[in-house]
C-alpha cells in the first residue's frame, strides 16, 4: 500500500501514525518534491520489502512508503512529536547525526534507544551526490535487514539518484525553476495545481509581466544556467514536436529546449532583458551547439493588479499582437509561442538568431497550424531541381513584387527574374497577377520551409 508523502521523521521510519498525527503530517508535503522522490522511495521499499522514509538534510519530511506484512502500529514518542511539529527536534537530529550519517557513504545501522523515545531501530541510507549528503532514506530495522544485505548496493544506487535530484534542487533558483518545469510540461488537468506551485515559489513576481524565452536545440548533456536577475527561473525541457527545423539538425524539434522566465517592468516594453538573457544562455554553449541554437521570445502580461502597465490597451504588446492571458495560467501558451519563434528564427534569416513571437507577422498563423503535406499546386516547385525557382518566388513575394529590389537581393538581372517567375507559373499553374494565387504560393513556400519540407 502506497501513502502520499507527509508523515514520518527520523525516529519514525516505517510506522503508521495515528489518525490525528497522520492528518497533521499531510500538511508538510511539498508539491515540488513529492512526485519523483515518492517513486524512488517506493522503489526502495519494494526492493527491501520494508517501510522507507525520505528526509532532507535538515530532517524535514519529503516522502514515505509503507509495506504490506509489516507491523506499523507502533508509534514511539519521538515519532509522534515530530509529526505534530512537522520537524525533528534539535536533540533528535544530533542523536542520529552522532552515528556518522552525515559522512557515511554506505548504510548505517542505528539501534533503538527507548530512553530517548526511539523504540525501533533504523537503517539509514545517505542520499549523496558529488561527495555531499543531501538527504537520508530511513528503513525500519526489525532484524530482517542488515547493512550487508546483498540488495543494499542497489538500494544505495537509488539513494544516489535521490541525492542527485536533491542536489540539483538545492542550487540557487532551483525551486522556481522546478515549478516552471512542472507548469510548462503539465497536462491541462494538472495545470491549476502547477499554477499554484509557481505562485508559491515566485511570490509577487509571478503576478507581474514576464517573457518566456526558448533556446533550441539545447544539448542533452547541458544543464540550465543558474538564474540571476532579471531571470526568475531556468529549466531544460524535453523535446516537443513544434514548428520549425533548425539548421543542420532535422531532429531538433524532438531535442531538449532551454526555458527562461524573465521578469519585465512592462509587458508593452521592448524585451531587451529577455534578449540579453537569450544571448547569455547561447554564449554558454560550445561552438557547434552555439552555431545552431536559436531563441524565441513571447511576452506574457501580468495577472490583474500585478502588471504596472498603463490601463490603455492592456492586451496588446509592442507589435500589436495579443499578449497571453494574465499570470502563470498563460505561460504554457507563451512557451509554445516562444518555441515557435525559435523555429522561425531557424529558417527565416530576416528574423535573426533571436525572434519575438509578436514580430513574426504571417508566421504567427503558420506556426499555429499542424504540419501538413504541401498544396498540390506547389508540390512540384519544392523538388530539389526547382529549389532556385522556389527561392526566387519567395523573395519576390516577400518584397511585394518589386522587381528591382528582388533582382538586387538575388544578385540577378531583371530579365532572369522575369524568366524564373514565368517558369514558376508554368510549373504550378498559378498566375502571379492573381492575388489569391500569390497568397497560396507565398504561404505554401513559407510553410514548407518552416516544417523542413524542401
Automatic annotation (TrEMBL):
InterPro entries, from UniProt? CdaR-like_regulators, PucR_C-HTH_dom, PucR_C-HTH_sf
Q: What Pfam families does this protein's entry cite?
A: HTH_30
Extract the ranges annotated as region (Disordered). Answer: 1-29, 301-329
Question: What top-level branch of life does the organism fall under?
Answer: Bacteria
Q: Which residues form the PucR C-terminal helix-turn-helix domain?
A: 389-447
Q: Where does the record place Basic and acidic residues bias?
A: 19-29
Recorded hits in PANTHER family, A to Z, give: CARBOHYDRATE DIACID REGULATOR (PTHR33744), CONSERVED PROTEIN (PTHR33744:SF17)
Q: What is this protein called?
A: PucR family transcriptional regulator
Organism lineage reads as: Bacteria, Bacillati, Actinomycetota, Actinomycetes, Kitasatosporales
